[in-house]
Automatic annotation (TrEMBL):
The lineage of its organism: Eukaryota, Metazoa, Chordata, Craniata, Vertebrata. One of its GO terms (molecular function) is oxidoreductase activity. It comes from Enhydra lutris kenyoni (northern sea otter). GO terms for biological process: steroid metabolic process. InterPro entries: NAD(P)-bd_dom_sf, SDR_fam. Belongs to the short-chain dehydrogenases/reductases (SDR) family. It comes from the Eukaryota. Keywords: Oxidoreductase, Signal. The keyword Oxidoreductase applies. Residues 1-17 form the signal peptide. This is Dehydrogenase/reductase SDR family member 9. The keyword Transferase does not apply. SUPFAM superfamilies: NAD(P)-binding Rossmann-fold domains (SSF51735). The gene is LOC111145615.
Amino acid sequence: MFFWVLALLILCGFLWNYKRQLKIADITDKYIFITGCDTGFGNLAARTFDKKGFRVIAACLTESQSTALKAETSERLHTVLLDVTNPENVKRTAQWVKNQVGEKGLWGLINNAGVLGVLAPTDWLTVEDYREPVEVNLFGLINVTLNLLPLVKKAQGRIINISSIGGRLAFSGGGYNPSKYAVEGFNDSLRRDMKAFGVHVSCIEPGLFKTGLSDPIKATEKKLAIWKHLSPDIKQQYGEGYIQKSLDKLKGTTSFVNMDLSLVVECMDHALTSLFPKTHYVAGRDAKTFWIPLSHMPAVLQDFLLLKQKVELANPKAV
């Protein structure tokens, strides 16, 4: 009996794996639109999918990065300047994309643009510190999706939202984690709403990757700028050496940082080309072995492990 159960499980595993490997037949006539292509995941994705034969429309924030990307890619790839927080810019871009794709529609929309914002203890921050990451990571993503959704529905295509392990587990104060938690919620509701139209919606949750987004120098500079304007009470509670001690703690976590950005692009590729794309993709060794498993654990265990990485306050009772 045990042998037959084992054989059935092996067969199911084989069929499941085979199903995941089935690909769409032709990509050369399919258009995909990617936001945040200046650097990082978006830039690598634009170059990768251009080489594969997709008709890539890469949205960049700056003219210089747009020019550089065009110089490295084929004539198939088009770039467009896009600030996802500017509603008029998004609307004009959507109309331009509509003219480009015509009756074919848009096969793939990859919402990749994002910012980290300020990562600091919550009582250091104002509501304005939360605004930028929420505007870019959430409202920008939603606005781009709503404006391009008719084109994706026409092609019965794919929508891929780049979230983060920060959308599953809050590791710091600031607007980044709330924005990514909200992206997860939007992604789930969109996936269910689009199912009847034959549109597949996937979410990618990268771990910690070495990109411009995660530059520790920039993050520290932002934290220092906020520190200068804190009240004497808060400075006394945290202690003058708090930021440096936090940096020292971070140095011990460098082994968690993934260097290979293609791990995320491979998830995008599967979501775009598989006949049976996944609803969620986890990218990065740290995400698979630590962050995502921890996100399923009881809160008391999450708090214990994450608080071990925080610096002890100098005098939390100081008023």
